[in-house]
Amino acid sequence: AVKYLFKYITKGVDRASAVIEKGNPISTPDTIASGEPKERVLKQRNEIQEYIDARYVSACESMWRNFAFHIHKRKPSVEKLIIHLEGEHNITIKSTDNLGRVIRKPGIEKTMFTEWMVLCRRSAFARTLTYVQIPEYFVWNNTTKVWSERKKGKTIGRIVAVHPSAGDRYYLRILINKIKGPRSYDELKTFNDVKYPDFKSVCHARGYLDDDVE
Predict the structure, then answer these.
(1) What is the pLDDT of residue 90?
(2) Residue 163: what are its φ and ψ, rounded to 5°?
(3) What dihedral do alpha carbons 108, 112, 113, 115 form, nearest 10°?
(4) Per its UniProt entry, which superkingdom is the organism in (predicted)?
(5) Does the N terminus or the C terminus of the chain have fewer Cβ atoms within 10 A?
(6) CA–CA distance from 43 to each of 23, 53, 104 (Å)?
(7) Is there a cis peptide before residue 25, judged by omega within 30 degrees of 0?
(8) What is the dihedral of CA 194, 198, 203, 209, to 10 degrees?
């Protein structure tokens, strides 16, 4: 980042000017009521000149602005990919929401992760990709809950971190980093025509985990 190379490039104004000038006298309700000749002095402000006089631009900042260099940027954009066990996705609701109505809402069961498997059912190309590769070629629409083909731009995907203590969800994360194009949770649990009871077991069968068993 630029701020590590030039510490004060975005520090802002660090110069102030103060002057005492004769202004135009004005009357206030206080002076009129008391009858005393108390007058406040109002100085006509020239905001443009004040900005020019008090504006300080360092040599580094002036070069950056003259050559129109980016001060900061992030490229490419990163899509955070969620994962969850079957039927265990998070739902965010407000305290005023009716829980029964929220649960019955159409599409409430759809998530980025489940719709990835739906995408793999209808797209042969999607079945050649791992979950983390999907954002490079498809765009997630959070309103319609659909993955659609990417037309422009570049995005990379990163799966959310899962602690080993999370159990089967941790082993699910290991699997989807390796397996391309699964069309269901059952397909993720299947290896060599054998369906395993959980994701940890299929990770062992595929050789993704080591243990002391001989």
Answers:
(1) 83
(2) -75, 145
(3) 70
(4) Eukaryota
(5) C
(6) 4, 17, 66
(7) no
(8) -140
Q: Which residues contact 10 (CB under 8 A, 6 or more apart)?
A: 2, 3, 61, 71
One-letter amino acid for residue 214 of the chain: E
Per-residue exposure over 54-75, b if at least 16 CB sit within 10 Å of its own CB, e if not: eeeeeeebeebeeeeeeeeeee
DSSP 16-39: --------EEE--HHHHHH-----
Phi, psi of 148 (to 5 degrees): -125, 160
Pair of tokens at residue 40:
């406040």
Which residues of the chain, if any, have pLDDT below 50? none
Q: What is the pLDDT of residue 214?
A: 53
Q: Which residues, including other chains, have CB under 8 Å from residue 116's CB and lie 6 or more apart?
A: 126, 131, 134, 147
Q: State pTM to two decimals.
A: 0.64
Q: What is the CB neighbour count within 10 angstroms for residue 172? A: 25
